[in-house]
Amino acid sequence: MAxxxxxYESMQFTGTNGPAVAEWLGNTTYDHTAEDGSLxxxxxxGEGNLxxxxxSSGYWVLRYDNRLEGMVSAEDYPTWYYELPGT
Length: 87
Prior knowledge:
Number of helices: 2
Strand content: 35-45%
Radius of gyration: 14 Å
Number of strands: 6
């Protein structure tokens, strides 16, 4: 029996790199960074539908196949995910 895992990529939202996060995701457009430091983006859900997405400062953004897959707090990130060496 083989053990397999899905390959996610991650980038941390620092509170100042919102446009870079949105561009990196590929299926989102940067909207603004709010006064509370949260990132606001619009995600393309297909067929012309846009959905608002909010990411808190310090959270890790996950992508799979150049699409937003989820977000996780900085506290939970090392518990839930393992970064492969040399990536």
